[in-house]
């Protein structure tokens, strides 16, 4: 199966809320209105993944916020999720790579929180350069689950390709 990435819009919010409810039922999943508010902000970037056969049917999503002054930006992963039916196909890595590219284009460090028992996500984050900074006790509500706070240091933007003369 081949996949297509696309920037998310307000029309995607019902499906995003549906996925959120399925993925995070005990963690106060975001409603469509929360996604609508996030997608509408000028400092956020939300991307989704669909199969090329059904380009309007989202199977995964990721959201990034760009914070701080333009001279010293920081980025924060707000959310990332993949429909359980499509997990294990590299879509989480594809989504994460896309938002990491945004942070890298700004030479910005990137932060996130992840449940301490979400081993697949922790392994994914560590494989892309994130390091654990500490634990946020009772971070997730209402479950009270702890979260690791993780950081990926700023990466130098890729230099433009050199022309062959």
TrEMBL record:
Annotated Gene Ontology cellular component terms: ribosome
Transmembrane annotation, as ranges: none
Keyword Transferase attributed: yes
Domain annotation N-acetyltransferase: ranges: 3-155
Source superkingdom: Bacteria
Keywords on record: Ribonucleoprotein, Ribosomal protein, Transferase
PROSITE patterns per UniProt: GNAT
Pfam families reported for this sequence: Acetyltransf_1 (PF00583)
GO molecular function: protein-N-terminal-alanine acetyltransferase activity
InterPro entries membership: AcTrfase_RimI/Ard1, Acyl_CoA_acyltransferase, GNAT_dom, MshD_Acetyltransferase
Descriptive protein name: Ribosomal protein S18-alanine N-acetyltransferase
Gene: rimI
């Amino acid at each position: 199966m081949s996949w297509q990435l696309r920037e998310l819009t307000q029309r995607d919010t019902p499906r995003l809320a549906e996925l959120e409810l399925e993925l995070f039922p005990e963690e106060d999943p975001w409603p469509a209105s929360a996604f609508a508010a996030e997608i509408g902000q000028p400092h956020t970037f939300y991307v989704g993944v669909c199969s090329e056969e059904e380009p309007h049917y989202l199977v995964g999503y990721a959201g990034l916020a760009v914070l701080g002054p333009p001279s010293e930006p920081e980025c924060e992963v707000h959310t990332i999720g993949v429909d359980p039916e499509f997990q294990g196909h590299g879509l989480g890595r594809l989504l994460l790579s896309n938002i990491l590219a945004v942070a890298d284009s700004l030479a910005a460090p990137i932060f996130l929180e992840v449940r301490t028992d979400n081993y697949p996500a922790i392994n994914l984050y560590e494989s892309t350069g994130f390091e654990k900074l500490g634990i946020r006790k009772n971070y997730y509500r209402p479950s009270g689950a702890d979260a690791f706070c993780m950081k990926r240091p700023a990466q130098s933007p890729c230099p433009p390709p050199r022309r062959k003369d």
